[in-house]
TrEMBL record:
The protein's name: HAD-IIA family hydrolase
Gene3D superfamilies, A to Z: HAD superfamily/HAD-like
Domain of life: Bacteria
One GO location term (cellular component): cytoplasm
Pfam families noted in UniProt: Hydrolase_6 (PF13344), Hydrolase_like (PF13242)
InterPro entries on file: HAD-like_sf, HAD-SF_hydro_IIA, HAD_sf
Species in which this protein is naturally found: Corynebacterium jeikeium (strain K411)
Amino acid sequence: MAHPLLDNYDALLADLDGTVFSGHTPIPGAAEGLAGRKVMYVTNNASRSPQQVAEHLNSMGFPAEADNVVTSAMAACDLGKRYISEAGIESPVAYVIGHDSFKQLVADAGFRVTETADDQPHVVFHGHSPDNNWTRLSEGALAIQRGARYFASNLDTTLPSERGFLVGNGSMVAAVTSATGVTPESAGKPGPAMFEVAARRVGSTKPLAVGDRLDTDIAGGNAAGIDTLCTVTGVSTHTEIIDAPSSHRPTFIAGNLRDHLPGWSASVDEGTNRIRVTAGELGDVEVMAAEALAVAAPLAWKLIDDPEIPQITRAENIDFVGADAQAMEALGGWK
């Protein structure tokens, strides 16, 4: 069965890495949560085409087609086209720091893709690719120094993998920005554009943005004005969720898209910085830890935001205690 809160929405706008899968391994509970629902996959990873993303999902048992995928590369192309139109540039030329699939999207958007800054490209597009090296970054930097407009698919500093967190597109962008002094316009999350496009494509009037990363998935959904669900399955940890600024705070928190343990509750001991968690239905420690977080986080945010208690600014200033052995075990599972 899926997490019951998913039934309150007509579509899910789901992140991929860390939410649906990790590398080539499905995230526990993702298949059950997504089954039978309208789903649009919204990903900042610009190294694969929508068709390749769909094929990767299919290989792990998730039914998907290219039309179910919105990538940050697609959104970057839209930004670039808008700039070219407003600037009145005919026969636009683009240099792409990124995968061949990104180059094809740029070509399909009406740009002539060049391999050299000497062609005076009007635009530089920058997306993640394992093949991005010093030569490609430097060629892009030269084009930007000569006046090309700079667009990044996303600014994620890390890229989740089965081995851990790899260098993300934002880290490579930082090198180009350091060399040129130019900060790119970013098309991906945490901007709202990808969520707005995805909701329109699936015909949703009440979508739920689902992701594991506060500064992209959750912040982007919040920016788009839709409810958000943070699954504690990838990047953002329990204490990071509590410490999140208001723009990064999710509407809901869950261990994954399937598991829910009803009956968990929390309260603040009056006049103290202590939040007391009481266990409800029991299950795996990871799921119990998420349930404890789901009931404790709103109370923690209220304490952190209260101007009358300025000494409480972070999770470390709050005393989280379990009212019973199971709640203590759950709190012990926080990271």
